[in-house]
Amino acid sequence: MDNVTRLECLDSYETEKLGSMLLSDRDSVHFVIEVIKIVDNEIVLMLKDKSCHAVLMKDNINAIKLRELVRELILGPLVVIRTFGQDNILNVVHKTS
User: Which domain of life is it from (predicted)?
Assistant: First the structure.
């Protein structure tokens, strides 16, 4: 059964950026490999190429919600199927493997 996690970003640019980061590549390897830091509503993510990118969320609650989602993604029980967004809302469709 697929689940949907709803995240609120600061704006549509951040929504689009985060949506692409959460998807896996063609080898089913996720781009995000670590949460570096959360400062207020900003979360810094490390990608598999070791580059770090900040994503601005609506508030600290959404940043923490994203951190928990990424943690489950990294540890393996969670698989992102697709993402879709409108304006500042990102919906992450996922299942537990």
Answer: Archaea
Residue 43's identity, in one-letter code, is: I
| φ/ψ (deg, to 5) at 72 | -65, -35
Enter the pTM of the model.
Answer: 0.92
Amino acid at 15: T
Each domain of the chain, given as residue ranges in start order, spans 3-96
* Element housing 87 (H / E): none
- Name the residue among 46, 61, 63, 56 with its Cα closest to residue 88: 56
Q: Which of 21, 2, 6 is nearest to 92 (CA)?
A: 6
Alpha helix segments (H runs only) across the chain: 12-22, 60-75
Q: Provide the residue type at 57 as one letter.
A: M
